[in-house]
Specification:
The chain is α/β, with parallel strands linked by helices. It folds into three domains: 130 residues, Rossmann fold, CATH 3.40.50.700; 39 residues, no CATH class; 120 residues, no CATH class. Helix content is 29%, strand content 13%. It has twelve helices and nine strands. The strands form three sheets. Strands 2-1-3-5-9 form a five-stranded parallel beta sheet, sandwiched between helices. Strands 4-8 form a two-stranded antiparallel sheet. A hairpin with a 4-residue loop joins strand 6 and strand 7. Bound molecules: iron/sulfur cluster (2 copies). The site of one iron/sulfur cluster has 14 residues, from helix 8.
Length: 326
Amino acid sequence: MTKPKVAFYWNASCGGCEETVVDLNEDILKVADAVDIVLWPVALDFKRKDVEALGDKEIAVSFINGAIRTEEQEDIVKLLRQKSGLVVAFGACAHLGGIPGLGNLWTRDTIFHRAYKETPSTENPQGTVPQEKTDIGIGELTLPEFYDTVKTLDQTIPVDYYLPGCPPPPNLVMNAVNAILKGQLPEKGAVLAPNKAQCDTCPRNETKPEKLSIAEIKRPWQIKIDPERCFLLQGLICLGPATRSGCGETCIRANMPCRGCFGPVDGVIDQGARALSVIASLLGLEGEKKMTEEDVKKLIDQIADPVGTFYRFSLPSSLLRRKRME
Ligand code: SF4
Ligand code: SF4
């Protein structure tokens, strides 16, 4: 019997999503037994021409992680789209833009300037920065274009399903693989994780009062965090109210607030805006005391990194997409 062909590919990412596949442990043998892997750059030596030689839609499913930052990434994912029946955006960076998406706070030139000229460890007296084409006498070397703006996978090619998380947990990956093999997939466009907020499954939910006001915002290193109480009660920003569940509350169980890597629940188009509105509605003084403008400013100033707090994983997928430059 012919096994379904499967591809794994990585774009702008840290490699953590590849680790998840390895974290399947002995289940990886079941996957390898059930499918024929035709591309997996981190582990196997396939070439672009191997993919080009396949027929259209011959790959049953491509799991693609990472955001789209370069011309080469765009080119390969377009090729994979053409050759694949299904494309799954694998992990937060492909799904929402992820941490590489915070590059949208800068331009390509400011990033190059910082990376190749300004960092304390840089030794570059000629101020050389990468060029797309370099004549080396015996020919021309080319590098893929580095885009000014980071994109999500679905801003580049049509995506069939999303596996959320930074990285997606192995049990969700296995569920998705089994659903694909059995042909038991939900409607196209679905996120393959429960459509509930973290707060609904959080072990600290019972300590979260109906009415809550945050009079002072803290950062995790500033206090001794109570391992039982809701983080919001302790003045720590937790994105649980604006984040999809399904990770097993990984960070919360490790006594760290949720940072939002699973993205929003269905119907929310801007996770950061949702989180911002939840937190803004909680800021206030104890009791009935009215806040002055000064109090409001003081509270807002306590949020050390607003974009990194509310859009840590989702800036390219947000309504703003990137910082507007002059
Ligand atoms: S805000 Fe965070 S800690 Fe509080 S209940 Fe929701 S997920 Fe749990
Ligand atoms: S608790 Fe939040 S940030 Fe941590 S893994 Fe789960 S969704 Fe991601």
